[in-house]
Amino acid sequence: MQKKVILLFVTVLIGFASVAVAIQDEEVEPFTWDRQYVDELKKVDVAVYVPTYIASSEFSRSLGSLFVSKLEVSKDHYLFEISRQRVHDGESKMLTFDVMTMSAGTLPSYRKQPFSTYEMFEIPEGATKFNGYDVKYSANKRAFIWKDNGWEYLVWAENTNNAINIMKRVMATIPKGSNPVHGAINGQMTAIDTNEGVRSDAGWSYNNGKTWYIITGRTTPEQLVKVLKSMVKLDTKK
Fold first, then answer.
1. What does each C-alpha distance from 180 to 1, 82, 156, 192 come to in angstroms?
2. How many structural domains does the chain have?
3. Alpha-carbon separation of residue 147 from 26, 135, 166, 187, 189 (angstroms)
4. Phi and psi (nearest 5°) for 126?
5. How far apart are CA 179 and CA 14, in angstroms?
6. Which of 57, 102, 114, 163 gets the highest tally of CB atoms within 10 A of its CB?
7. Which residues are the signal sequence here (predicted)?
């Protein structure tokens, strides 16, 4: 009887393990901030936000583990880069592969300007209604701009079909009336079609532009939103 109970318990555990593996998110992976970096970030006077998940894929994980490859801090600014590096015992360090960069501070000012004020988009070619959004388009219908809930979105691709498909992805990832970053009252997000696939970045503010936070890197729109939603505020007063 005892053996049957043990076997049943093991079977249940295996079942739970299978489910856990099945629902594991392959697009991002957790990232833990070492105490040395947290202590450095305490020197900054602006509110410090960091991601707890980083964009990932089967290929990128083969390039090595995630680590902070660069950290700059001052009273009103911070910047860090997260990269991958594979190091084997007894071998010198291999090349690093940049994954993402995040900065915060009072600059750059151009990120505070609406996309529609950029020279290339200043005179839109037209406007349309798409998935309930008022969308303006430029560059022979290869660039699309729309606004929602204090955020502005820009999609750019080599052709109209690609641009529309990317726009659908962004809109599906961020439901109408919501924000990619919890508590951010305004921001911008771009999704650009490149030779390496669709790449996205974002800039946002929690205090009406006084401090601006920016993330760039090798991320799809879906990955970027998951990274943005993982943002946490560090307690720098301790």
1. 53, 21, 19, 17
2. 1
3. 30, 8, 16, 10, 10
4. 175, -175
5. 38
6. 163
7. 1-22
Residue 128 lies in a domain: yes
Say whether pTM exceeds 0.70: yes
Please give the sequence-ordered ranges of beta strands (E in DSSP) within the chain, or none if there are none. 28-30, 49-50, 53-55, 65-74, 77-85, 97-105, 126-130, 133-138, 143-148, 151-156, 186-194, 197-205, 212-217, 232-233
Query: Distance between CA 125 and CA 80 in Å, rounded?
Result: 38
Q: Is residue 216 a contact partner of residue 113, using CB atoms and an 8 Å limit?
A: no
Decide if pLDDT at 20 tops 70.
Answer: no
SS3 6: helix
Residue type, 55: A
195: pLDDT confidence band, cut at 50, 70 and 90? confident
Q: Which domain holds residue 74?
A: 1-13+27-233
Q: pLDDT tens-digit profile of 139-189?
A: 889 999 999 999 999 999 999 999 999 999 999 999 999 999 999 989 999
Residue 61 falls within a domain, yes or no?
Answer: yes
